[in-house]
Amino acid sequence: MHQNADPVATFEDLIAALPADKMLGPALHQLTGHMSCPTETVEVLRRARKARNFIAHEGADVGDISAARAKHLLEHAGRLRSAVSDLAAGDNIISQWGFHFEEPSCSLPRDLIDAYPAVIDKWVFGHFGNLLDEVAASVPTGAAKPAQEPS
Fold it and tell me: What is the distance between the alpha carbons of residues 88 and 70, in angstroms, rounded to a whole number?
């Protein structure tokens, strides 16, 4: 727990205490500072925040479309796919928390939680995801691959 945390505050109290104009990064930092949260969960949420920023600011930016080549477009699509995956992982965590607070006596829908990443990938990329898989499989081992971490 955070050293200044109210020991009896509920999750809802902590959310309500956040300023409405707070940006996502500082809000997550402040919120997770009040919770006992595994390092892995904090890292997933950090990657999700960075992925959200990549998608919002660079997701569709492939540069001058007249100069874009297939290799460049596929590399960018790979980075976008990685960002969508990271964002879905963070959303999955937040959705589980929300479900737990709304339905505290119900078990988490594990089948939906486990299927969520694939459902999101198929929803966003559809058949294009198969092409990205084929391209990724054709890259020789040890060859330079597109960055997996969104900038």
Answer: 26
CB 87 within 8 A of CB 121: no
Rounded to 10°, the helix 128-138/110-125 angle is: 90
Q: pLDDT tens across 62-112, in order?
A: 888 888 888 888 889 999 999 999 999 999 999 998 898 889 899 999 999
CA atoms of 85 and 75, how far apart (whole Å): 15
Q: Please state the pTM of the whole predicted model.
A: 0.67
Of 40, 47, 1, nearest in space to 24 by CA: 47
Tokens of 64: 């001058």
How many of the other CB atoms lie within 10 Å of CB of 36? 8
SS3 63: coil
Give residue 12's pLDDT. Answer: 65
Q: Which of 48, 87, 79 is nearest to 148 (CA)?
A: 79
Yes or no: say if 88 and 120 are a contact pair by the CB < 8 Å rule: yes
Distance CA 69, CA 81 (A): 18
